[in-house]
Task: structure prediction
Amino acid sequence: MNMYSYVNQVRREAYVEPGGLSDYDQRFWILVGALMIEVQHLTKRYGPFTAVDDVSFRAEKGEILGLLGPNGAGKTTTMRVLTGYMPATEGTATVAGHDVFADPIEAKRKTGYLPETPPLYPDMTVREYLTFVAKLKLPAAVSKAERASRIDGVMEKTHIVDMANRHCSKLSKGYKQRVGIAQALIHDPEVLILDEPTAGLDPKQIIETRDLIRGLAGNHTIVLSTHILPEVSQTCQRVVIINRGRVVAVDTPDNLTRQLRGSATLYVQVDAGSDDASPALSAIDGVRQITEIDRHEQQVGFEVAADAERDIRRDVARLVVDKGWGLLELRPLRLSLEDIFLQLTTDESQTVPAESWTAPVDEAPIEPQGGHDSSDSEAAPHA
Result:
């Protein structure tokens, strides 16, 4: 097997079977630069309560991976463990080849982290704050001029140059998010971890933040968490759906649609005159089920479910032409991300939400001086 074939085989195995690669294959993946994040059997318990339960997933170089789940699903806890912010009870996590538990300093050097509420110091200007963060994150050998150049570069990239001399406390929510992303980028990390990056933003700010995140892909591997469904469909290439601390699906939205529906479904609207189109459509090879969806005089719409591997569009069009009917509409029906999300996360059993447990005192985060919203528990800059 040649190198190209082997890499693609490993890629397929990594997507389909988390935790299924040998140590050799994992090292090979890292060597060829494809695997940037590896999480295997991650578990986090607080006393008797399990917040994250046997979570496994991978992220490829340059990919935007979304952690999607309802509030309290365990997304933030997973990110805190992945960034080295808190230890796991069981399992392993690597960032750019560095184990976040065995080699935490190197792993953090490769990681930029934006908590749900940006860790800003309200009495500092934007430039003062980024200078402070740069001194923490950049090597001591970096000159003052180079540090200033880095700061100017991230401000341009995140479009906050015009806010350089404004105090962080005076920024809008959207600009605070941008400054938060800037501090995560200051040391040019290979991996960006963004927790709810568009939470609380207005529609214009959401669009701007999404554009910014998409623009960072390729040069950075990005993991973002959200409970907002359009966030995943418009920003992420793959999605990890988490519910009650467990991974319930890992795939692209398109693949999830095919797997959950289990069939190829079309919407067909015809003008069949006085004919009943249903029996003729049902007779097409591969059709499983016909359901009348709507009717207006002689115009009738059907949902036609066929075998997943069979494309019946040509057969439907040929039938309509042969019958002399009018074909008004023919389009594939897909499960929306909302449908997928509800199918995978709806559970009538009542359990404690994964993030409702109060962290023990020894794991409580430290807030920056000056304080901010007391509901945020991830305040300190990630050095």
